[in-house]
Amino acid sequence: MKINQEISRLPKTDQYDMYFGPCHPGSANFGIKLKLKGEKIISALSDPGYLHRGFEKLMEYRLPLQNAMLSDRICVLESLAWELIHAEAIEELMDLEIPERAKFIRVIMAELSRIQSHMIWWGVFSAGTGFDTGFKIAFGYRDYILDLFAEITGGRVYPAGYICPGGVRRNFPEGIEEKIEKVLDKSEELAKYMEVENPTFKARTKGIGILKLDDAISLGATGPVLRASGLKTDLRKDDPYEVYQKFNFEVPVREEGDIYARFLIGLAEVKESIKIVRQAIETLPEGEFILPKYKKPKINMKINEGEVYVHNEIL
Questions:
Q1: Which of 306, 313, 314 shows the shortest CA–CA distance to 89?
Q2: In 3D, which of 78, 59, 60, 84 has the Cα closest to residue 70?
Q3: Which of 5, 149, 162, 182 is the most exposed place for a label (fewest CB within 10 A)?
Q4: What is the pLDDT of residues 49-104, one digit of tens each?
Q5: What pTM was estimated for this model as a whole?
Q6: How far apart are CA 236 and CA 273, in angstroms?
Q7: How far is it, in rounded angstroms, from Cα 229 to Cα 256?
Q8: Where in the chain do CATH 1.10.645.10 domains reside?
Q9: Per CATH, the architecture of 56-294 is what?
């Protein structure tokens, strides 16, 4: 009886608050503070939480080659891109010019990593919009790419510092190019699944979660999110690194800025990454895969003092 009296004193409202998340330890402590009216979201405030693994301190007393293995743990979704940016920073600081073959291999691996990252996104996105089958399909197709990573680098999710200062740790194994082509065919199959028209999916994504371009810029949005709001920008085009200037590909852009636009950008980017990988395989040069002096780095090897700034197109 007392409980009912307490409830009766609460202000009358049809809105309520709900804390959504954290959903997975891989997302750190990220959550969203939602204000709901029935099932309609009135407002959403992101709460990044706190998770600090101390990579910058761990790297202070390790060799660059050892730090390559730490850098791929920064992000489980796209570990090879983080290896790449670490390697590029060390090479800029040391004034190193790596072999041409290594640059091509890096691009191939970075774009394969990009494709599987988009697959994770589509799978989780499908589950979040009520299509659990999409989650299973996406993660099944992602496994084809992870199998390639295991054969090339020795690791599936974390590629053991494969992209490292001076090049890459291992040359491509014999016959891997044909296997990559087959996996690209599988990736195109998934893209066709993603293209299936579904009125329920559209109802849950079109005109919802609109992020206007000015807001996207002021909030620091990057990559597919920024491009879905109308800004045609991509560091692989705007400021090419490695050998991206050698390849023909488009930068997808949409004007709507809603959830559906971001979905279409992700779909288009998978197709463009497939095009890049195919071109890189066709023109892959012979030669060294790493600078000879970095094949067996000395235990007391040190990097130059100073500061550098590098950037690449990370999702």
A1: 306
A2: 59
A3: 5
A4: 776 778 888 888 888 888 888 888 888 788 899 999 999 999 999 999 999 999 99
A5: 0.86
A6: 11
A7: 6
A8: 56-294
A9: Orthogonal Bundle (1.10)
